Amino acid sequence: MNDAIELSRMRDTDFTAAVDAQSGQRISTCYQCGNCTAGCPAGFVYDLQVNQVMRGVQLGLKNKVLNSRSIWMCLSCSTCSQRCPNNIDVAGVMETLRHMARKEGIVTVPKVDKFWTSFLATVRKYGRTYEIGTMVLYMLRSMRVFTDVDLAPAALAKGKLGFKPHKTPEEGAEAVGRIFKRYQERANRQGVRA
Amino acid sequence: MKIAYYPGCSATGSSADYEKSTQAVCAALGMQMEEIRGWSCCGSTPAHAVDTQLSGALSARNLDLAARQKADMVLTPCPSCLSNLRHAAKRLENPEFRAGVNELLDEPLSENLPETLSVMQGIARAYDTDAIAARVRKPLAGLKLAAYYGCLMSRPHEVMEFGDPENPTLMESLLTACGAEMVDFPLKTECCGASYGIPERAMTARLTGRILNLATMLGVDAVVVACPLCQMNLDLRQQQAAKEAGVAFSMPVLYYTQLMGIAFGLAPSALGLDKLCVSADNLLRKLDQPAAYSKAPEGDKA
Ligand code: SF4
Ligand code: SF4
Ligand code: SF4
Ligand code: SF4
Question: What is the complex's ipTM, to 2 decimals?
Answer without folding.
Answer: 0.86
